[in-house]
Specification:
Two copies of one chain form a homodimer. Chain A is of the alpha/beta class. Chain A has eleven helices and twelve strands. A six-stranded parallel β-sheet of chain A has the order 1-6-5-4-2-3, covered by helices on one side. In chain A, strands 7-8-9-10-12-11 form a six-stranded mixed β-sheet. In chain A, strand 2, helix 2 and strand 3 form a beta-alpha-beta unit. The longest helix of chain A has 16 residues. The two termini of chain A are about 40 Å apart. Chains A and B meet through helix 6, helix 7 and helix 8 of A and helix 6, helix 7 and helix 8 of B.
Chain lengths: ~325, ~325
Amino acid sequence: MIHETTRLTNKEVAAWLLERDGFLILTHRRPDGDALGSAAGLCAGLRAIGKQAYILENPETTERYLEYTHNYLPPPDFVPQVVISVDTADAGILQKNAWVYAERVDLCIDHHASNTGYAAYSCVDTDCAACGEVVYEILMALSGEISAAATPLYVALSTDTGCFCYANVTAETLEIASRLVRAGADHWRVNKRLFRTKSRARMALDGALLSGLRFSHDDRVALALVTQARMAETGVTEDDLDDIANIPNQAEGVQVGIVVRELPDGSCKISVRTIPGVDANAICRKFGGGGHPMAAGCVVDMEPEDAAVALEIAAGEALGM
Amino acid sequence: MIHETTRLTNKEVAAWLLERDGFLILTHRRPDGDALGSAAGLCAGLRAIGKQAYILENPETTERYLEYTHNYLPPPDFVPQVVISVDTADAGILQKNAWVYAERVDLCIDHHASNTGYAAYSCVDTDCAACGEVVYEILMALSGEISAAATPLYVALSTDTGCFCYANVTAETLEIASRLVRAGADHWRVNKRLFRTKSRARMALDGALLSGLRFSHDDRVALALVTQARMAETGVTEDDLDDIANIPNQAEGVQVGIVVRELPDGSCKISVRTIPGVDANAICRKFGGGGHPMAAGCVVDMEPEDAAVALEIAAGEALGM
């Protein structure tokens, strides 16, 4: 980083936004519900006070999230005056078609402790379970008008917390969710679509994964291997794989849950989920990745079986075994 | 019913409780988290204001919920002055060892629309997702002291809403959950234990069920058959079967999800889950059961395969097919 970022509070961000116009909002690679919901909520909130705001199309957006951003895509001739990233800890993980903006992000709104301060201004609240909570607080400071933002922000909060079930949930998360529902968030439909609906292909994959978990280290480590072959067998697509990282760690007594997923290019995407006191971030940093203390990831250039063994060893080390 | 029940508001219940002492709290057969959490929360709240209060031991309490009630069991010589039932729509489904009290329930606190008004006084709020919400409002009116009740009431709310994911969740549900967490509810541990931990036997059973769902009626009906043989094969116990009713209805496009579970006595316990507009209660009433519009159940005296076919037909009728 050449410059140092200037930290802003939610209220300062609101004042900063009020003074500006012509916003373009960026998300990260393999965008999740928090990134896309935060982007859509922010965009809706800015438009609600008469600002011009768009979301840069993210080609990796999966089917389930398309509806939240597709109304906010910029016209071809749009030239942004202000560039904002959401939920993006480092410029290096910005969506690939945003490289042209990587060195000129004006404001970053985020909740990751690993945020590198790559933007000119940053508003990073690591106490928030979801970036959507930060956006909610900013919109409340900006205008209090959140009705158009309610559903996408509900998507942001609910997806980053496994529908309010993960350890990152706080009293504030639930309170904001309550206010979003009161403001008109279509929570029933979101919950049904995102958390209580599985394609038949995904149900078949889950059936196979649940029957074939690999346990090691006195059953304190559980690993699921999702190869391209198994994906083809069950017919799942990328869009069917939401929250798959949280399957192995549900087995009773498991302290480190690992999913090794073979990507089409032959590399493997690793997801690690741990209990408090076991550092998922540290495990993934060994392989050039990172994340949160209990939820982290990395991509490794290994065969699936080799990646599985390497991760099992790293997990064992993290457990002091 | 010989008498007619007197309806009380939350505030009237609080005043009613203040005037009385020597409480015994009853739950229903096969008690769930809402029944036991409501009972424990109410008992804790009454004790917090110096009242003598106990919960009648329910022998059908499963391992996962024992910890919430075991400190509140009455001494052998306890003679109740006031008998209260929670989460129990009809005297006929009271826990079996409470038959002696069936005709003398003084107060019923509940949230079921099907409540039959069997108690002398009733406080039934059908807008509440969980009976625990009603108990929360009563305790707030009673003293505002909810710290000892926070964890059991969180158990009540979270278990009846699938950790805030079902269609019954309202803004109030989330707001009360937020206040319970703020009051000290141990939500992380509850979520991990009740929603994000499965025994290895249950994981194996889920694997088998997901791989073997029966689809009918243009895939709008999905049915899972849990026979005693399959339970024995996978090693699951009663305590492992929580929320199993919500597996088939997760398949994309399914409008009626049915679980037929063979009981040790050869009868079958049926759970039906539907989407809005398809009446689960009506389906189960045909077999002498009932419940909520989108979540109902019954017990039928049939072989599992016969029960499955009968339910598939009833589901088809409910879909107008």
